[in-house]
Amino acid sequence: MRMQIVMPQLEVHRFSSPFENTPHAHDDQFQITIPLQGTCHFTHEHKQLALPPGEGIVLQPSDRHSFYIGDGTGVVVIRIRPESLYPGDSSVYSEPRHRKQFDVSRVSRVFRQWTADMMALDMADPLVEEELEARMICDLRELIWEGTVPASPKMAHAAADRHLAQVLEYVHAHFTEQLSVSSLAAMAMQSRYHFIRSFKSLTGVPPYQYVLQLRVREAMEQLKKSADTVTVISFNLGFSSTSQFFRAFAKMTGMTPEQYRKSEGRRLI
Fold first, then answer.
1. SS3 state of residue 195
2. Which of 31, 40, 75, 192 could disulfide-link 51, Cβ–Cβ 3.0 to 4.6 Å?
3. Which CATH architecture has domain 2-88+99-120?
4. What is the structure's pLDDT at 90?
């Protein structure tokens, strides 16, 4: 069995039961292979390795490798681009060890959270995908460097507030359009991950949830004051689909858009 999550900067693959691949290399990606149960028979540059649970191996781009697993064995393979593993806003990351002992229960828990988020979130929205990928990359750095990930670069409090205020002003003016974490983070002069943390600290929710709240509040006004259909309102407010609109609206108000419109109509009588 194989499960996978493919993002622009990150790939995660979960293999179980018998599996074997042929020798190959990834020219532009690091690869982290972590056995979760059973023994992973790994070949790295013609060297044979038997990796027990938790005994991970970190490969540099272009390292030639292959592996085989039998019945009852599970392996997580993570591939990531160098510029994402080593962010541009920090130059103090040490080179990850070629062989590293990982906490199997922690890796399993992180993987389950990633897959749960993929199932629960609307991945058609670029803002959602970027937020999830940024969290996944941060989780991976924590797994590799075990809590020694450098803190966000210090920024004067007034300057940080000013930049975040500009971001909020921009979001309020453009919340019906497609927004991206990358562009908002650049406006805040922070990395994607540190921006998400700063934004949540300021508003109480991450950027995507904040945008959803703005869209739903505007939808409530339009449902009360206009005769536009739910589909038209959904499209005009930037929702990726009417189903996404229904889910977000029901979660925030406890009723469907039609139910809300009827209830507000009765109040006006």
1. helix
2. 40
3. Sandwich (2.60)
4. 54
Q: In this structure, are residues 257 and 197 in contact, taking their beta carbons and an 8 Å threshold?
A: no
pLDDT tens digits along 99-156: 999 999 999 999 999 999 888 887 778 888 899 999 999 899 999 987 555 444 444 4
Distance CA(173)–CA(187), nearest Å, equals 14
> Mean pLDDT throughout 61-71?
95
* Stretch 76-94: mean pLDDT: 78
| Domain locations in the chain as residue ranges | 2-88+99-120, 147-268
What is the end-to-end Cα distance of the chain in Å, rounded?
Answer: 59
Which pairs with CB-CB distance under 8 Å and at least 24 residues apart come from 167-174?
Answer: 167/199, 168/202, 168/203, 171/207, 171/210, 171/211, 171/214, 172/214
**Stretch 211-221: mean pLDDT:** 96
Q: How far apart are CA 5 and CA 242, in angstroms?
A: 25
Task: Return the closest-CA partner of residue 132 out of 181, 93, 87.
Answer: 181
Domain 147-268 fold: Arc Repressor Mutant, subunit A (1.10.10)
Q: How far is CA 41 from CA 34, 97, 107, in A?
A: 12, 19, 19
What is the C-alpha separation between 207 and 63, in angstroms, rounded?
38
Residues pairing with 59 in the sheet: 31
pTM, 2 dp = 0.79
